[in-house]
Structures are given as structure tokens and as C-alpha cells.
Design brief:
Chains: A mainly alpha (418), B alpha/beta (177), C alpha/beta (160)
Number of domains of chain C: 1
Structural class of chain A: mainly alpha
Number of helices of chain A: 18
CATH superfamily of the largest domain in chain A: Cytochrome-c3 Hydrogenase, chain B
Strand content of chain A: 5-15%
CATH topology of chain C: Beta Polymerase, domain 2
Radius of gyration of chain C: 17 Å
Radius of gyration of chain A: 25 Å
Shape of chain A: globular
Largest sheet of chain C: 5 strands, mixed
Number of strands of chain A: 8
Strand order of the largest sheet of chain A: 1-2-3
Number of strands of chain C: 7
Oligomer: heterotrimer
CATH superfamily of chain C: NADH:ubiquinone oxidoreductase Nqo5 subunit
CATH architecture of the largest domain in chain A: Orthogonal Bundle
Strand order of the largest sheet of chain C: 1-2-5-4-3
CATH architecture of chain C: 2-Layer Sandwich
Helix content of chain A: 40-55%
Largest sheet of chain A: 3 strands, antiparallel
Order of helices and strands of chain A: HEEEHHHHHEEHHHHHHHHEEEHHHH
């Protein structure tokens, strides 16, 4: 008792020493009160420019507020001033870890509005690039979660595999990274048989490398302790906050848009949806690792079933014609001129098309007044909605868990901030 | 810096300056201001294939107090500009800035209400790298150009270099107006 | 599925002025803004409908003098895998819409974004602040009368 009284008087003497003679500010005892900590927009582990304000009681997080907007580039206003074709390069930069996926999602929405469909070979090529993009995004998740938790080797190995994928993208689309590969009515150019052989080789080699990474992480005491039981979210909270993607499947809800509302050729392909109970960071890690294996399964089927044929639909007033016809035929020249200058002219109406992106449900809502420019384009980005679950997940954890939780949530600020 | 002022201009200080600049250029620790897509190419630049460590940029120091060069990678919005400037001010002298990508050089493909049309509106830039995003090879070229600049002892913001299609063009900085 | 929803809504809200339309197999319902919260609650809880997931909520500027601003709700049902769209409008002089954060928790951030971009006030929202633009910004960017390049001087820049 006396020792306690002594400690209290010593603490208040320290606080008195901190006060100034000239000002009349008094301080509260920091050990008895809560503190606000700013995890700023510039931080090595916030996956981009995310600012999180944490209210701490000692080391425990009592409440948290994420703040977005540090990368707000004005996509939706830009879309109202671009034709439908001109917006395709902008969609690359939304979820910049899987650009091909965003291209396909946007073009599917525009094709739904126009009422056209891409030819079968183009659909298979689109599925192929979508699954390659999914693998690319999940490898980045693996690398950054491991790095955030302390395993730098896995980051290097994940990047080695990603570099091989960049080589493939360069062969398919011409650019490593921001590809703008799809077009309304098909894809930009066809895939050569040599490229398909290289894709096959990559797909058959990948499971071995993934197993190496898993050997380092799955039974690793440090990794498991840092992610098991951390960042828990229940099924009801997840559905109320519309948390989609691998995070929802880690809570026990087996919802995947590729199965629920199939698009492209997914209804002809055979794959499983990995579902785990638990809703914590470790479950989210397992779901994503299993999704890489399912993507490999899908890719093997796509490579076996790829039909021959054209990759552009032949719809003269809606689809950009091929260059050799533009240079030789009169109607195609006129159509090319009209489409590039005035845009595709869809009917008046509105559509909402959603696809299963690696991060969750990526949706495009297009409201058209019949002109070549959309009247309103809304991008329903999965990271924006998933970040809303952050205050729920951070409740009651320690500061050092914040980094692991943000890593397991895997947000991308390019699409969260639009 | 202090040594040169103390000893004045002489043969000894010129050789010393060359030696110091040689040391500086071979240990440029970058501070990655990774904001958006260019940050992924910057990570690839630090990754196993295009290894930046062999040029002296051994670690990417995330603390401004421990770094020499700030690589601004990604679109800078008005909201973020304040933060970038604050971090730049915290870096100790001598410091340099690499503006990576089209968005930092001139606003890029975003001529919108919230994007700063080029970070040179509020930061002195030494090397501009074109590309959207620039390949990691291009960024290595930028690092080597910066190293040549450091060796010559050119002060920051003067005689900026622009890296386009693997060729470097040198321009004197136009007067502010 | 579409006609089932139409019948149920007409039976439950017999005297409400709905407008139904269908485009590319998607049903759109225009709902008067006074009853939007009850309609959303009914659609979430009705046993055959169960629209328990609000995929998207966005604002829109129609640029017509009456009915200037609108709010669009894209709903999804995890059980029946069906989508539906609700729309509600408000005038320029009175840009207020009741909030649906009581029905779906995810509407919180979406409504904040709509407020930030259009200036619509959501009555009953627990925490209506700006989402993307800085708090001191005075304009609403996605309105049709705001220029793409912005208004010079509206956002401060640090000095060189």
C-alpha cells in the first residue's frame, strides 16, 4: 500500500516536471488514459497509402478508424469524359496487382450493356488471363503477408514466380504490367501456340514452388502464432458488412460469383471453392493458397479445351474492326473513325455486372443516356468495402497484430480510393 | 559539407570531395515513397531479378532520417502532397529525388481535380523517369544517372535528367515563372 | 424471379407509387424516398426474397431540374443468387434521403462517399463525414457543374 502511494506521487512529480512554468497546460497520466496513435499514410506495412487512427489502451487497440482518399484520382469523373474504349487503360490501374482481371470485368459490363458476346476463343483466353491474374495477386499477398510477419525469404520467392508471370504477360499483351488487353467484343490480339506452351510449362511448375513456400510457413511456429485467432470476424458481421472474396470464404460462407452467377465459360469448368471456418487471418491465408491450386486446375482445363477461331466479334457498329480491314475496306474505315471519335453508342439503360476478382466482388454499374460516353460509371471495388471490416477486426488486438491483420485483409489502395 | 567550408578551395579539398562523392554515389539508400502502381515495379526493382542491391542501394530504408534518395512512385494527390513534402523535409542533406513514372513527372493520364500535375510543383526533382509504369531496367538507368550526377557534385534540382526510351537527355532547369 | 418480387412489393406496399422496368434481365424499381428504408427492410427480411447483401450504393446527378439527385441501390441475395436495383430521387433544393445503415451496415461508407461526391444529406447516418476529399474541401466533385480539372485554388499545395 505504501509502495503504491509512493509510486503515485513519483508519477505525478514526473508529470509536473513535464509541465511548463509559463503555460498553464496540465497533462493526464499516460499510463491511466488512452492514447491516439496515427499509423500514417506513409508506412512500410500499410499496403499503400492507408491511414489508420488507433485508440490505444496501453498496447491494446480499443477502436480504430481507417482514412482513405490519399490516392483518389477521380476515376468516375474521368469516365464521364472518356468513351468506353478510352476507359480500358484506366481500369488497369484500379487493382494494380491483377490488371488483366479488371480489364475483363469492365469489358463484360460494357458488352452486357451493348447486348453482344465475345466469340468462344476470346472467352477462353479471357478466363486464362483472369486466372493468371488471380495467381499473380495471391502470390503478392503471400509475399507481403510473410514479409509483414517477418519472413523475407518467401517474399523473394513469390517475386521470382511473379517475374515469370510478367514474362508471360509480355508475350500475351505486350506489357509486363498495365496491359489493357481486352477490347469490347474480344481481346486485343490472339495468343500464339508458343505462348500457350510457355503458359502450360509455368502452370505445371508452379505447384512445386508453392509447396516450398508452404513448407516454410504452414508449420512455422512464429507464423502460426502471429496469425491464428488474430483478426476474427464472424459470419453475420461479414454478411452485414458485405465482405466478399477469400475473406468471406474464410468465415464459412461458400459464396463465389464464378459458381453463383457464372459468366464467361466458368459453368463448363470443374473447380472447387475452398471454404474454411474460423474467420481469422490464418483461415484467410489457407483460403488463398487453396485458390492458387484451384486456379492451376482451371488453367489446365482451359489450355486443354481452348477452341480455334477468331478473337474478335464481328459486329460492325459496336466492335472496333481489325486493322487490315480498316486499311483496305471503306465501311470498316468509316466505322473505325466513328467508333474512335464518338464512341460505341449503346442503348439508353443501366447495367450492373460483377465478377469474382482476387480481392472480392468487383462490379461496374454503367448508366447510359445513349451517347458514346457513360452518364455515370460506378466502380464497386472490393477493397473499399472490405476495408470497412477493419475496425471490427482490430478490436481488442495488440499493435503488432495490426500489421498482420491488414496484410491478411490484402487491400489495394488503387481501387479502394478510385 | 562542413569540411569544405573549413579548409577552403584547394587541391586537397577537390580530391576529398571526389572521394566523398564516390562514397555517396555507391551507397544511395532509397526511401521508397510507394504510392500506387509504380510501387510494384519499384518492388520488382528491389526484387531478385533486377537486383538494386548490386548498385549500392542495399536496403530500402522506410525511415526518412536514414535515407539519401526519395523515389516518389505513384500518383500524388493534393491530399498526399502535404505528406510527401513533410517526409522530404525530414530527410537530412544531401538528398535527391527521383520522380518515377508519368504521374509524378507531369500528372500522367490523370488530368483531374485531385491529382497534382507533376511533383516538381512542390519538390525539387533530380531525375524524371518516363513510363507508365517504367520498367525496372529504366529505373536502374535512372539510378545510374543519379550516381553520375552525385559524382559530379551537382546540387539538387539543377540540370535535371529525363529518362525516356533508355536514353538520357540533360536539360538545365528553367527559371520559375 | 422478377415477377415474384414485383407481386410481393405491390401487395405489401399497395399505395406506394413504384415504377418497374426491366433491361437486360435486370429489374429496376423506382421507390419514393419517404419509404425507402421500409422497402429495404422488407426486401431483406421477407422469407422468399432475403436480399441480405447490399452490393453497391451510389449517387447520380441526373441534371434535370426536378429530381436532380438520385441514389441507386444494387441488392443481392446470397440464398437465391438474384439481383435487383432500387432507385430513389430527391430535388436540388432538398437533397436529403433517409439512410439505410440500419438495414445493412455496409451502407455506412457508401453513403459517406455519396455525400462527399454529390452533397446529398443522409438523414440518420451515424457519422456523415467526407470520404475521399479533405474535410475542408467545399465543393462536390461528381456534380455535373463541377469541371474535370477542378477549381484552381480549392486544394492547397505545399510550397517548393
Amino acid at each position: 500500500m505504501e509502495q503504491h502511494v509512493e509510486e503515485v506521487t513519483r508519477r505525478t512529480k514526473i508529470l509536473q516536471a513535464l509541465e511548463d512554468q509559463n503555460t498553464s497546460v496540465s497533462f493526464d497520466d499516460p499510463l491511466e488514459n488512452q492514447m491516439v496513435l496515427n499509423m500514417g499514410p506513409q508506412h512500410p506495412a500499410t499496403h499503400g497509402v492507408l491511414r489508420v487512427l488507433l485508440r490505444l489502451d496501453g498496447e491494446t487497440v480499443v477502436a480504430s478508424i481507417p482514412e482513405l482518399g490519399y490516392l483518389h484520382r477521380g476515376y468516375e469523373k474521368l469516365a464521364e469524359n472518356c468513351t468506353y474504349h478510352e476507359f480500358i487503360p484506366h481500369t488497369d490501374r484500379l487493382d494494380y496487382l491483377s490488371p488483366m482481371n479488371n480489364n475483363v470485368a469492365y469489358v463484360l459490363a460494357v458488352e452486357k450493356l451493348l447486348g453482344i458476346e465475345a466469340p468462344p476463343r476470346a472467352q477462353y483466353v479471357r478466363v486464362m488471363v483472369k486466372e493468371l491474374a488471380r495467381i499473380s495477386s495471391h502470390l503478392m499477398f503471400l509475399g507481403s503477408l510473410a514479409m509483414d510477419v517477418g519472413a523475407l525469404t518467401v517474399w523473394m520467392w513469390a517475386f521470382r514466380e511473379r517475374e515469370k508471370q510478367y514474362d508471360l504477360f509480355e508475350r500475351i499483351a505486350g506489357a509486363r504490367f498495365t496491359t489493357s488487353y481486352t477490347r469490347i467484343g474480344g481481346v486485343a490480339q490472339d495468343v500464339t501456340p508458343e505462348t500457350l506452351e510457355l503458359v502450360k510449362k509455368f502452370v505445371y511448375d508452379l505447384p512445386g514452388h508453392i509447396k516450398e513456400c508452404e513448407k516454410l510457413l504452414n508449420k512455422n511456429r512464429i507464423f502460426v502464432d502471429r496469425t491464428d485467432g488474430i483478426g476474427v470476424i464472424t459470419k453475420e458481421q461479414a454478411i452485414d458488412l458485405c465482405y466478399t472474396g477469400p475473406g468471406l470464404r474464410a468465415c464459412g460462407v461458400g459464396h463465389d460469383l464464378r459458381r453463383a452467377n457464372p459468366y464467361l465459360v466458368y459453368k463448363d469448368l470443374d473447380f472447387d471453392i475452398p471454404v474454411y471456418e474460423g474467420g481469422d487471418a490464418l483461415a484467410r491465408y489457407y483460403v488463398r493458397m487453396d485458390e492458387i491450386k484451384e486456379s492451376v486446375k482451371i488453367l489446365k482445363q482451359v489450355l486443354a479445351k481452348m477452341p480455334q477461331g477468331d478473337v474478335h466479334a464481328f459486329k460492325p457498329k459496336k466492335v472496333l474492326p481489325r486493322k487490315e480491314r480498316v486499311y483496305t475496306k471503306m465501311e470498316e474505315l468509316i466505322h473505325d473513325f466513328m467508333l474512335v471519335n464518338f464512341g460505341v453508342e449503346p442503348p439508353v439503360g443501366e447495367v450492373y455486372q460483377a465478377v469474382e476478382a482476387p480481392k472480392g466482388e468487383l462490379g461496374f454499374y454503367i448508366h447510359s443516356h445513349g451517347e458514346g460516353y457513360p452518364w455515370r460509371l460506378k466502380i464497386r471495388s472490393p477493397s473499399f468495402v472490405n476495408l470497412q471490416t477493419l475496425p471490427v477486426m482490430l478490436q481488442g488486438c495488440m499493435i503488432s497484430d495490426v500489421v498482420a491483420i491488414i496484410g491478411s485483409l490484402d487491400p489495394v489502395m488503387g481501387e479502394a480510393d478510385k | 559539407m562542413g569540411l569544405e567550408q573549413a579548409l577552403g578551395d584547394s587541391f586537397l579539398t577537390t580530391k576529398l570531395e571526389d572521394a566523398i562523392n564516390w562514397c555517396r554515389k555507391n551507397s544511395l539508400f532509397p526511401m521508397p515513397m510507394g504510392i500506387s502502381c509504380c510501387a510494384i515495379e519499384m518492388m520488382a526493382f528491389a526484387g531478385p531479378r533486377f537486383d538494386a542491391a548490386r548498385f549500392g542501394s542495399e536496403v530500402f530504408r522506410f525511415s526518412p532520417r536514414q535515407s539519401d534518395v526519395m523515389i516518389v512512385a505513384g500518383t500524388t494527390t493534393f491530399k498526399m502532397a502535404k505528406v510527401v513534402r513533410k517526409i522530404y523535409d525530414q530527410m537530412p542533406d544531401p538528398k535527391w529525388v527521383i520522380a518515377m513514372g508519368a504521374c509524378t513527372s507531369s500528372g500522367g493520364m490523370y488530368r483531374t481535380y485531385s491529382v497534382v500535375q507533376g511533383i516538381d510543383l512542390f519538390l525539387p526533382v533530380d531525375v524524371y523517369v518516363a513510363g507508365c509504369p517504367p520498367r525496372p531496367d529504366n529505373l536502374i538507368n535512372a539510378l545510374l544517372t543519379l550516381q553520375r550526377k552525385v559524382q559530379k557534385g551537382e546540387s539538387k534540382g539543377s540540370s535535371t535528367a529525363i529518362i525516356g526510351d533508355f536514353t538520357t537527355h540533360r536539360h538545365p532547369v528553367p527559371s520559375a515563372g | 424471379m422478377n415477377h415474384v418480387v414485383v407481386e410481393k412489393l405491390k401487395t405489401r406496399f399497395a399505395d406506394a407509387a413504384f415504377e418497374f422496368s426491366e433491361f437486360r434481365a435486370e429489374l429496376t424499381v423506382v421507390v419514393p424516398k419517404e419509404i425507402i428504408t421500409e422497402v429495404c427492410q422488407y426486401l431483406k427480411e421477407a422469407p422468399e426474397l432475403t436480399y441480405d447483401s447490399l452490393s453497391d450504393l451510389c449517387g447520380i446527378d441526373m441534371n434535370t431540374p426536378a429530381k436532380r439527385f438520385g441514389v441507386i441501390y444494387n441488392l443481392y441475395s446470397l440464398a437465391t443468387k438474384h439481383r435487383i436495383r432500387l432507385k430513389t430521387f430527391c430535388e436540388e433544393e432538398d437533397p436529403t434521403v433517409p439512410t439505410v445503415t440500419g438495414v445493412w451496415g455496409t451502407a455506412n461508407w457508401h453513403e459517406r462517399e455519396a455525400y462527399d461526391m454529390f452533397g446529398m444529406d443522409f438523414q440518420g447516418h451515424p457519422d456523415l463525414r467526407r470520404m475521399y476529399m479533405p474535410e475542408e474541401f467545399e465543393h462536390f466533385p461528381l456534380r455535373k457543374d463541377f469541371p474535370l480539372m477542378g477549381i484552381p485554388g480549392s486544394l492547397p499545395l505545399p510550397k517548393k
